[in-house]
Amino acid sequence: MVELLQYAKRRADALRGNSAAETTYDAKPGTHLQLWLLVFAVVFPIAVAVIVSTKQTGVVTSLGDLLPGSYAVENYREALVDYQFGRFMWNSLAMSLVIVVGKLVVSVFAAMAIVYYRVPYKDLVFLFILFTLLLPVPVRFIPLFQLMNDLGWSNTILAITVPYIASATTVFILRQHFLSIPTSIVETAKLDGVGPLRFMLFVLLPMSKGVLVGVSIIMFVYAWNQYLWPLIIIDSEANQVAQVGLQLLQGDVQGGQLSWSLVMAGSTLTLLPPLLLMIVFRKPLLETFSIQQK
Amino acid sequence: MTTVTLQNLHKEFGDVVAVNGIDLEINHGEFLVIVGPSGCGKSTTLRLLAGLESTTDGRIEMGGRDVTTVEPKDRNVAMVFQNYALYPHMTGRRNITFGMKSSGDFTDEEIDRRVTEAADTLDIADLLDRKPDAMSGGERQRVALGRAIVRDPDAFLMDEPLSNLDAKLRIQMRAELARLHSTLETTTVYVTHDQTEAMTLGERVVVMNDGQIMQVDEPQVLYDFPENRFVAEFIGDPAMNMIPVDVKDGRAIHETFDIPLPSGNGQPKSNQNGAGDAQITDGQRAILGIRPEDLHLSDPQTNDELPTIDAEVNVREPLGDSLLLHCSIGNTSCNIQAEPRMPITAGETVSVTYDPARLHLFDAETGEAFYHSELRQSTDEQAPSKLTT
C-alpha cells in the first residue's frame, strides 16, 4: 500500500518533470503506522496462539482473555511428556531431514546433468521434469498408497520421505544457478583435467552454497508442514509426525472438553524449528530468491 | 617444439559459419595475436585450439601430433580468460594449484616449488592467501596468469585477457605480458579486438573477418602494406581514408584532384614500372587509401612540387597531441591528422598535401590491394626495424 502510494507519487513527479533526486520522501509517522498495522495483522494469530498456550483452558471470549496466563510450563510439559508430542516432533525432524538431503543429492546430480552434459533430448527431459510441477501432489495419493502398500513401506519413514525426494522446483532453481556460473570457470576446470566428481565437490557445490542453503530451508519447511500424506499412510501413533499429532492434543473432544491451550502449545512447538531456521539462515534465503536482481 | 598448425579449419554452429577454412602455422615460441571485429571467429578459433569446441572440418596439429579430436586436458595448453575464471571460493594459491592437484601429475613438493616460482615471476606472492574478492582486476588476472604458467603448458591461449581492465592497467599489463613472454618463450596465441594490443604484443598478427584470415604479418608490415581494404581500414586509428578514384596514365584522378602515383620508394613514376604498380591498368576504378597522418596541411613556404587537394573541414577534434579534422573532399568524407593548435575552424577549406610514399590502391570490386607506392621490403630487412619499435 505504502509502496503503491510512493510509486504513484514518483510517477506523478516524473510526469511533472521532477527527478527522483529532487523529491524527498520523509518517513512520516503515518507510514510507520501503516507498517505496524500490517505487521500486527500477520503476527496477531501467532501471538494469540502463544498466549492461549499459557492458559488453563484457553477459551477466548473477550479481550481480557488475551492476557498471558500462568500455565505455560504445565501445558508444554503435558504436551511433550504426557501426549508424547516430543516423539512426533522427532519423527517430523527425521522425515524433513531425509527429504531435504535426498532432494539435494538427487537435484544436484540432475541439474548437473542438465547443465553440463550432452544428453540426448536433454531439453525435453527438463521440460518433462518441469511438467511434473503441474500435477498436484494429492492427485498421486491413491496410486502412491497402493505402491507403498505393495512395497511394504506403509507406516515407515520410507513412505513419508521417498516419494518426496524428487523435486522439480529444486532442479529448476539449481539449473538456473548453475547456468549463471561463468562457462569459463567450467572450461578452466576442463582444461585442467578436473574430473566431474571433483568439479562438483570442490567447485560447483562451494559456489552454490547460498542457493543450496536457501533451497534447503524452503524444502525443510515444506517437508515439516506435510500433513495429508502422513495422515493417510502412517497409522501407528509412534511413527506419526507433529502436524498430524496436533490433533491428538485435542483431548476429549466428544466430552466437549477441547483443550485449546494444549493444541496451541503444540502449535507453538511445531512452529519453532522452521522459525529458527528462517531466522538463522535468512541471508542465504533472501539471496536465493533474488537471483534475477543480480 | 610446439609448432601449432591449423589446416583448413572449419567450425559451424547450425547455419552459422564461425570459422571458414583457416590455414595457419604458429611457430614455436611465437607470440601470435589474432585480431578482428566481434563475431569474426577469432575466439572460436582459439576455443578450437583449446579443444573446447569440436571442429566441423579440418585438422589441428601441435608439435607434430594431430590433436583434432584430443580432449582439452590432454592437449597441455593453458587458457587465460577475459573474466579471469578464478574460482571465487578459493584463495590465490588454491586457484593456482587446484588444477595441478586434480591432474595428479605433480608431487606436492613440485607444486610448491612451481607456485613459488610463478609467484616470483608475476610478483603475486602476497596475493596467494587472498580470495579473488579481495583482489583488484589486475591482481586477479595476474593470478590467472600464474595458474596458466605453473603447469608449464606447450601453449598459452589468451582470450581477450586485458579487456576487463581499465585503460591504465591495460597498458601496464600489456608490458608485463610482453616481458613474461620474453622470459618464458612459450608459444602464445592471443585473441583481442583491440588493434593496439595486437600491434604492440604480436610478433605476427592475424587479422580475421567473417571466419577467414585477411592477412598474417608483422605489425608494421600489416600497417604499411595492407593486403586488402578490410585490413587497411581495421588497422590504424583513425582509420585509413578511402577515396574512390580513376586510375589513368599512372595518376589517380578524383573529381577534385589528380595526383601522380609514384613507383617504388616514393619517387615520381617514371616509364619503367616499379614492382608496386605492376598491375595498374588505365581507366581502372579503384579506391585510393591514405592514412590520416599521411595527409598534411600544405605549407606555402616549403615549395614542394606535390599537387594539393582541397578539403572542407566539417568538424575539428583536438586530441592533444594532434588535431583530427573531419573533412570532405568532393563528396568523400576524409580524416586528416594535423598538427595540434592549428587555427582552423569548421567550414574552412584547407589545402592538403600527402606523403607520396604512403599511397595505397585497392580494387573497387574485390577490395584487394594492387598498389602500394612504397616497395615492400623482404621480411629479413624488416626484422631489425621491428626490434626498435
From TrEMBL, chain A:
<keyword id="KW-0472">Membrane</keyword>
<keyword id="KW-1003">Cell membrane</keyword>
<dbReference type="GO" id="GO:0005886">
    <property type="term" value="C:plasma membrane"/>
</dbReference>
<feature type="transmembrane region" description="Helical">
    <location>
        <begin position="157"/>
        <end position="178"/>
    </location>
</feature>
<dbReference type="InterPro" id="IPR000515">
    <property type="entry name" value="MetI-like"/>
</dbReference>
<feature type="transmembrane region" description="Helical">
    <location>
        <begin position="35"/>
        <end position="54"/>
    </location>
</feature>
<feature type="transmembrane region" description="Helical">
    <location>
        <begin position="199"/>
        <end position="224"/>
    </location>
</feature>
<dbReference type="InterPro" id="IPR035906">
    <property type="entry name" value="MetI-like_sf"/>
</dbReference>
<feature type="transmembrane region" description="Helical">
    <location>
        <begin position="258"/>
        <end position="281"/>
    </location>
</feature>
<dbReference type="Pfam" id="PF00528">
    <property type="entry name" value="BPD_transp_1"/>
</dbReference>
<feature type="domain" description="ABC transmembrane type-1">
    <location>
        <begin position="89"/>
        <end position="281"/>
    </location>
</feature>
<protein>
    <submittedName>
        <fullName>Glycerol-3-phosphate ABC transporter permease</fullName>
    </submittedName>
</protein>
<keyword id="KW-1133">Transmembrane helix</keyword>
<keyword id="KW-0813">Transport</keyword>
<dbReference type="GO" id="GO:0055085">
    <property type="term" value="P:transmembrane transport"/>
</dbReference>
<feature type="transmembrane region" description="Helical">
    <location>
        <begin position="93"/>
        <end position="117"/>
    </location>
</feature>
<keyword id="KW-0812">Transmembrane</keyword>
<feature type="transmembrane region" description="Helical">
    <location>
        <begin position="124"/>
        <end position="145"/>
    </location>
</feature>
<comment type="similarity">
    <text>Belongs to the binding-protein-dependent transport system permease family.</text>
</comment>
UniProtKB/TrEMBL annotation, chain B:
<dbReference type="InterPro" id="IPR012340">
    <property type="entry name" value="NA-bd_OB-fold"/>
</dbReference>
<keyword id="KW-0067">ATP-binding</keyword>
<dbReference type="Pfam" id="PF00005">
    <property type="entry name" value="ABC_tran"/>
</dbReference>
<dbReference type="InterPro" id="IPR015855">
    <property type="entry name" value="ABC_transpr_MalK-like"/>
</dbReference>
<dbReference type="Pfam" id="PF08402">
    <property type="entry name" value="TOBE_2"/>
</dbReference>
<dbReference type="GO" id="GO:0016887">
    <property type="term" value="F:ATP hydrolysis activity"/>
</dbReference>
<keyword id="KW-0547">Nucleotide-binding</keyword>
<dbReference type="GO" id="GO:0140359">
    <property type="term" value="F:ABC-type transporter activity"/>
</dbReference>
<feature type="region of interest" description="Disordered">
    <location>
        <begin position="258"/>
        <end position="278"/>
    </location>
</feature>
<dbReference type="InterPro" id="IPR003593">
    <property type="entry name" value="AAA+_ATPase"/>
</dbReference>
<dbReference type="InterPro" id="IPR047641">
    <property type="entry name" value="ABC_transpr_MalK/UgpC-like"/>
</dbReference>
<dbReference type="InterPro" id="IPR008995">
    <property type="entry name" value="Mo/tungstate-bd_C_term_dom"/>
</dbReference>
<keyword id="KW-0472">Membrane</keyword>
<dbReference type="InterPro" id="IPR027417">
    <property type="entry name" value="P-loop_NTPase"/>
</dbReference>
<keyword id="KW-0813">Transport</keyword>
<dbReference type="InterPro" id="IPR003439">
    <property type="entry name" value="ABC_transporter-like_ATP-bd"/>
</dbReference>
<protein>
    <recommendedName>
        <fullName>ABC-type D-xylose/L-arabinose transporter</fullName>
        <ecNumber>7.5.2.13</ecNumber>
    </recommendedName>
</protein>
<keyword id="KW-1003">Cell membrane</keyword>
<feature type="compositionally biased region" description="Polar residues">
    <location>
        <begin position="264"/>
        <end position="274"/>
    </location>
</feature>
<comment type="similarity">
    <text>Belongs to the ABC transporter superfamily. Carbohydrate uptake transporter-1 (CUT1) (TC 3.A.1.1) family.</text>
</comment>
<dbReference type="GO" id="GO:0008643">
    <property type="term" value="P:carbohydrate transport"/>
</dbReference>
<dbReference type="InterPro" id="IPR013611">
    <property type="entry name" value="Transp-assoc_OB_typ2"/>
</dbReference>
